[in-house]
Specification:
Helices cover 52% and strands 12% of the residues. The chain has helices at 22-27, 39-55, 71-84, 95-108, 155-160, 163-186, 198-223, 229-249, 253-260, 273-287, 292-304, 321-331, 347-361, and strands at 12-15, 32-37, 59-64, 88-93, 112-116, 128-132, 138-143, 150-154. The radius of gyration is 20 Å and the shape is globular.
Length: 365
Amino acid sequence: MSKFIFSSPRKYVQGEGVISQLGDYIAELGNNAFLIADDVVWGLIGEQVASSLKAKNVKFHYERFNGEASQNEILRLADHSRKAEASVIVGLGGGKTLDTSKAVADELKQPIVIVPTIASTDAPCSALSVIYTDQGVFESYRFYTKNPDLVLVDTKICAQAPVRLFASGIADGLATYVEALAVKRSHSKSMVDGLPTIAGMAIAEACEKTLLTYGYSAYVAVAEHAVTPAVEAVVEANTLLSGLGFENAGLAGAHAIHNGFTAIQGEIHHLTHGEKVAYGTLTQMVLEQRPDEEVARYIRFYRSIKMPTSLKELHLENESWENLVKIGALANSDGDTLKNLNPNLTAEDVAYAIRAVDAFSRTVI
């Protein structure tokens, strides 16, 4: 029997200065918060968070995130949270911090509040985490029975982050509809184990349209740390639309190829999630034989926001054929989503497409 599933956070709040209201929303969920953030994020917003919680008489304990969304880090933080007798888990920061926080909340069966400080990934709204080894190699997806209880996005904070990270979120979001169409076409399942819903597909399409329409002007504004209507629209697309879109309409080649890049060593790992997803999106487009002008449009847009469209920009211009095949093999593993694009692809097919993107990009003006 076919089933259609749609999943979403309980509440999504976005706007300039909403970090001051965090205590109001957390108080609805619990009176003892366990806060997870890295040192940089805590230095930026820790004082505001603490002030907001104190104003609502919410106790809290801060614990430093060590940088990798690995099982060992999840268990370490879960142990600290138990000792603190927390009643709600709060993740503050970027994608790996948020994925780890969701896993900690799942370990303890506690409410989870997500506070992104950058609009760089679609991780905040989803009921899953991407789990890596302690060395940063993709390991698996971890799925949860519910989405976050609250996602709170302060656009003023997001606009203070490096514009490169904002652009990375745009690139991550642009994969949403490309992958959703592949899942729909192949009659595959979404990330919530159902067929893509009309709502999920519509949201994914709205994500692409918003990013291609307002992405560049928002990028220019964030480079000046300004919050404009375009920035608000793109933050929503990066965070909410992309999050709901990928989860409810599914993933295919772009993210699988991103995960495949973890099979090799080198400078590529200094790139952001979105930068690698951008190249994965172009590779998927080649694999599904998208029209040349369609691929070229994406290449031109990526260039406008300084996303990589060549092997040199990925630091892979001298990579061996054998390593490109390793990327393809990991992308094509049973635990990933490349088969939603085409179950008959080989590791060599992916390697050829990675090279083809580079060759085609060099001809686009």
